[in-house]
Amino acid sequence: MTEKKKILVVDDEPNLRHMLQVLLKKQGYQVEQSADGADALAKAGEGNFAFILCDIRMPVMDGKKFLLACTESGIGATIIMMSAYGTVDDAIECMKLGAYDYISKPFNSDEISLVLKKAEERERLKDENRRLREAVRGHAFPDIISRNDRMGRIMELVKKLSGHKTTVLIQGESGTGKELVARALHYCGVRRQGPFVAVNCGAIPAALLESELFGHVKGAFTDAGHDKIGLFEEAHGGTLFLDEIGELPLALQVKLLRVLQEEEIRRLGAAAAQKVDVRVVSATSRDLAGEVAAGRFREDLYFRINVFALSLPALRERVEDVPLLVDHFLEKHGERMGMPGVHPTPEALQALVRYSWPGNVRELENCIERGLVLCDGATLGLASLPEAVRACAGQEHRGVDRSDSLSIKKGAEALERQLIVRALEQTGGNRTHAARLLEISHRALLYKLKEYDLG
């Protein structure tokens, strides 16, 4: 039998506490009461409460002081504030202090049920996201977050390839995570104790690139005042990641081919070559086969670096990963910026999922970091997103900010219904797969299909 979730109701009005206790018990919760913040703080420290409903204006210790004390004490319950005198500023201040949501009195039972339903779904998604990330980290690299089937197959290949010295070519658009996959190849394999050295072949002037890769001896050219080791020597015993290898000048392509074949390098100006033990992983956002056909890339080098190819999908081809990545980047940058626990509003998440992300995962991460700077409280709303992303919110939801469309309940239901329809369209009506995309159980989806009369 499922254990009942515990809720603490904190309010100095006995009638309201009693009403909430009766309502919440009917919904299957285990309810305790407190008449002020000080008593509630003692109970919260001892009891394992999932949620706390707390009034703002109370004797002994008011709601804001209670909220601050809970945050400082590390109490992990999800706290929802209540007030009959609330303003927008109060709501924002409570969010900044760590509240999950804010509800104005008087409220009806449906409003309380909706807020708790959203809070439970948020906690479920956080737990599932955490489990998914841990599962991925078990066989890849911590920052590769995906539940996409194609990415899953790529990471399985990474596991198999990581134990070998085979040269690998990683292909994909800019921002798809090519360096992360290269690092996974290195840190999951036998070379993880050795260095991982990365260089962007397009970021270094052609005149300096040979010296950077192979090093030089003192006096090799005018400015060579001392010996310098190159990146191949620096990566000895480990992995050298050649990003944007398609930018490599033809003259250097010949020398790189020789290094890969002979496994030895010669510093500029040196009389003798020296052996190096380096695994080379290359990456490109170009069509290298097309570059070969156009005479801009050597065919023999192309075949040498392309012993095994990994083609990464664009983010628009793995839409189901967007909510996971949003959660990951909110957690990553939120902790760094002192803003833990921020979550997107349904409208913001809808826009983030619908946007095409030409800059892929890198663009999404930058968008989330920017949004954290601009957002107020514990929610990331549409207003904190770039204009191009905001434009992807559904027309029917853009009016949520208007005075005639302020119903949270109606907005949440409309968004939920639309997401279900889209998931069914993407999966060709397969309800099991649609439930996975929606990150809910198959049983919950069947209930919602009936609720929204979707057959």
TrEMBL record:
PROSITE patterns: RESPONSE_REGULATORY (PS50110), SIGMA54_INTERACT_1 (PS00675), SIGMA54_INTERACT_2 (PS00676), SIGMA54_INTERACT_3 (PS00688), SIGMA54_INTERACT_4 (PS50045). Pfam families: AAA_lid_14, HTH_8, Response_reg, Sigma54_activat. It comes from the Bacteria. Residues 6-120 form the Response regulatory domain. The keyword Transferase does not apply. The keyword Transcription regulation applies. CDD domains: AAA. The modification 4-aspartylphosphate is found at D55. InterPro entries: AAA+_ATPase, AAA_lid_NorR, HTH_Fis, Sig_transdc_resp-reg_receiver, Sigma_54_int, Sigma_54_int_dom_ATP-bd_1, Sigma_54_int_dom_ATP-bd_2, Sigma_54_int_dom_CS. Keywords: ATP-binding, DNA-binding, Membrane, Nucleotide-binding, Phosphoprotein, Transcription, Transcription regulation, Transmembrane, Transmembrane helix. The chain crosses the membrane at residues 66-86. Residues 144-373 form the Sigma-54 factor interaction domain. This is Sigma-54 dependent transcriptional regulator. It comes from Geomonas oryzisoli. The lineage of its organism: Bacteria, Pseudomonadati, Thermodesulfobacteriota, Desulfuromonadia, Geobacterales.
